[in-house]
Amino acid sequence: MMAVGGGELENFNSKSLSRKFLFSLAAVSVLATCANATINGGGCSNGSCNISDSKTDKITVSGTGNTLTIQVSGSVNVNDSEAINFERDSSTTTFKNQGTITSGDKNAVIKIGENGNSGGGATITTFENIGIIGNGSSKTGISVLGSNNSKSTITNFTNSGTISSKEAAIYLANTNINTFTNSGLINSNSGTGINLSNSTISNFTNSGTIKTTGTAEPNSTTASLYASSGINLQQATIENFTNEGVISGKIGINLSASSIKTLTNKGTIESTSSANELAGAISITSLYSTSSTIEKLTNEGVIKSNNAHGIFIGDSNTIKTLENKGTIEAGLNGITFYGFHTNKQPIDIGKIILEEGSVIKAGNNGINIDGSDYGIKGEGIEVKGRLEGGNAGIYIGGGKQVNTSIKVSGTIQGGNGGIINTGTIGQEGQKNQQHGITIEKNGLITSTNGSGILNTENGIIYGNITNNSDNDLSLKNDSDATITSGIINNGNGTIHINNQGSIGKNEDGHNIANNGNGGIVVEDWVVSTGDDGKLEGIVVGGDKTDNVIIDNVTIDQGGLDLGELEDISNIVSGVRPDQVGNIGINGSGEISLNFDPITGKLSTNFNLNASIAGATFRSLINTTSRRASFIDSVMGNSMQHFANTSIAMQEKGNLYANASDYIKNDFNNGSYGYNKEHSLFILPYTSSQNVKLSLNEESKGHTRGTIIGYSTLKDSGIYGVYVGYEDTKMSSTYFDINNRSYYTGLKYFNTLFTTSKGQEVYLRAQGKTAFIKNKLSKKIGKSAAEASPNSYAYGMSGDLGMNFNHGDNIFSPEAGLVYEGGYTEAFSMINTKGQATVIGGERTYANYLNLLSTRTSFTWFRDWLPNLKTSMTLGAKFNINPQVKAKARFGQVKVEDEFYLPRVQRYVTTSMIVPLNNVFYFSLNYNGIFDSKGDTHTGFAQFNYIW
């Protein structure tokens, strides 16, 4: 026992001696540290200082092991420098402020460490502010500085008081903070609440307010780099960031070349920007070639911006996972993307999850996957809450991609579409890609003005669109858009489909499949011809095909094999004929279909009047006929003005809207000499016109041309010749008809006799011909075909007229007979873009035209002044045989048809003529031609020279 007891006593004594030795070493160490600690100013003279009264001189902390406390009754107010300066390489165990610390407007209130190449950091174990630091006019509240090789370090930073300044309330450069906790107010009047540069905070918790009332907005030059922000990170890192309070500024949280590992918002993060496209409550941008990243962003509170975006992401930046459990409200887009062209890399949106009960509400798009010129990619979007945008709930721009599916068990709503896709949803070639978009049991995708899902422009959705919901869904797939798989309805709701593009088949080979108690209504579906020459008809499948209704099917005639129309199963299969409402064909109406839903029989009809042949002949004949009426109406018989004096004194001539008619009138009045035998005129003109086609279509366009004419006086009468050209461009929905015409004509005039009362009876005659080079285009959707046939026009006419003189007025009634002929070469439409013609081609055979018509007119001319004369002509032409026949071939089917030109054509011409001298005359004129198939309005000027 003694041996054991002695051993225990010996062991106890040994331990006791060791502890005394260690305590002695610790005491020596503490004494040594205290010996190195120094706090100067404010009445402090050693390493531990308590200030309980007012101080006006600068306090400097150096050395190690310092402790500085400002009591509630204490204050430090310095105007010409920092109030407190923790020098580089200093070490402070505890700094605690319960009072008030302020400085002038050119310095920080508290400065910790030094920056620059010669700078270095300071160390503070505990920094606690319960009182007031800064007064709003101080340049910076707290500046924590260091260098790349010597950073400042704060283990625990706590603020439950107020830190305010003119610029950054807290400025951290080359600083590491382990724990940053704010439950008070951090405020900047014109700068940033907290600015981090090349600094790191391991754990950041805010339950107070961090804000700026600064007015600096992001701009296109520096982006958000100098924007007034609640918290600004430049090349900085926050490991774990939890906000339970308020963070506010033009940008709430602003990242530039920075990272946050986890950001959890349970409070409010807001942007106070005024309608700035570059601002957001949270902004994530690059700095030069360095990107920003948030590993996981969880919102359980409110992210808002009344006039800008909720979350703004620039080129090459990433949010790997975005989980919304709270509310995101934005005047522009809830979540948006933007290209600055600085870091030319795609944006990675990662995975977006909107949990049940969450809300994103935006003025434009809830999620706007657009804006970057270098692509946007993401893992997928899952909507369990509510996603709403004034334009769209989700908008995916051209060239942008969401790599996997969109799953909806909540609500997506937009003004023009719930989901609008012009980019890509899903990935090509993914074997496990079963659902491009899936709507779960209670899911709803809807819009107030458009479709629930709008796949438009060149949008692609890889995979099926599957509806498991009891809610209805409307889907529109536009002409250039593609859904690679099928449409499946497993729910109790109804899917309404409008497909103008391409929809593929599901794994069972069905374009649409109905398995639930709901239904599918095909409002319209365009059936096109595949690469194999067969129609890609609608294949219906599923367990409940009786609940499928096909309201309308439109067959694309581009590349169509007419033989495919003989079997209804080539167009629709899987449903009874009485479930199909109507089957038609697109285009101008040249091919039409008759469908009997009882028997399922389909017949084909052709209407050349609505084809390129009808449009060409109708437009060409109308244009040619109107040109002839125009020339006859405006040219007149200038030849009569050069008869000798005795004839001229007897002949008032035929008066038209033409300066040369009134030259003669001046001759009659003896104003000038009577030795004029030649006349030359030039007449530039421009017209606007429209021609009615079939199916309420109109071909509209304009014509520009010029006429040059010459007349000479002979004993046997007056002879004239004219030449001209014109360019005509006419366009309609399905056809473009452009041509250039070259024409010429011969004219003759002579007075037959004069009545006893002085009325002149005259004869005029004309022969004319024209060569027309046509360029014809047929348009079916995005496809086009062209042809370039030549046309030839010819004709002759004769008219009798009489002049009645009444003071300064001359009235001239006239009547005549007109023949117009023409020939257009046979032509075949050649596909120039896609396939606009049916299989086997489309050919229009040569067309011959022979038209006979009568016409009558009445002209009133008045000589107001020697240098001012006016004229008005009213006339009408009556077509005796307006019927025109045409022949064509569609594929192997030959077709004959006929159409009718307008029976009556009316015209009016007005002129104002100004004789400039005895050889030059000038006139401004208008001519209008009207009939049941359209009208032409022409303005022209005429210049005459006589000698």
How is the topology of this model organized?
Layout: H1 2-36, E1 38-40, E2 48-51, E3 54-55, E4 59-62, E5 66-70, E6 75-77, E7 84-86, E8 91-97, E9 100-102, E10 108-112, E11 123-129, E12 132-133, E13 140-144, E14 152-159, E15 162-165, E16 170-173, E17 175-182, E18 185-188, E19 194-197, E20 200-206, E21 209-212, E22 229-234, E23 237-243, E24 246-249, E25 251-256, E26 259-265, E27 268-271, E28 280-285, E29 293-299, E30 302-305, E31 309-314, E32 318-324, E33 327-330, E34 335-338, E35 347-354, E36 359-362, E37 365-369, E38 376-383, E39 386-389, E40 392-396, E41 401-402, E42 406-408, E43 411-414, E44 417-421, E45 424-425, E46 435-439, E47 444-447, E48 451-455, E49 460-461, E50 464-467, E51 473-477, E52 482-483, E53 487-489, E54 494-499, E55 502-503, E56 512-514, E57 519-527, E58 538-541, E59 548-555, E60 572-573, E61 580-585, E62 591-595, E63 602-606, H2 612-635, H3 645-650, H4 659-668, E64 678-692, E65 698-714, E66 717-731, E67 735-754, E68 760-780, E69 783-787, E70 790-806, E71 809-824, E72 827-828, E73 830-833, E74 842-844, E75 847-865, E76 868-879, ...
Parallel strand pairs: 2-5, 3-6, 4-7, 5-8, 6-9, 7-10, 8-11, 9-12, 10-13, 11-14, 12-15, 13-16, 14-17, 15-18, 16-19, 17-20, 18-21, 19-22, 20-23, 21-24, 22-25, 23-26, 24-27, 25-28, 26-29, 27-30, 28-31, 29-32, 30-33, 31-34, 32-35, 33-36, 34-37, 35-38, 36-39, 37-40, 38-42, 39-43, 40-44, 41-45, ...
Antiparallel strand pairs: 1-4, 62-63, 64-65, 64-81, 65-66, 66-67, 67-68, 68-69, 68-70, 69-73, 70-71, 71-75, 72-74, 74-77, 75-76, 76-79, 77-78, 79-80, 80-81
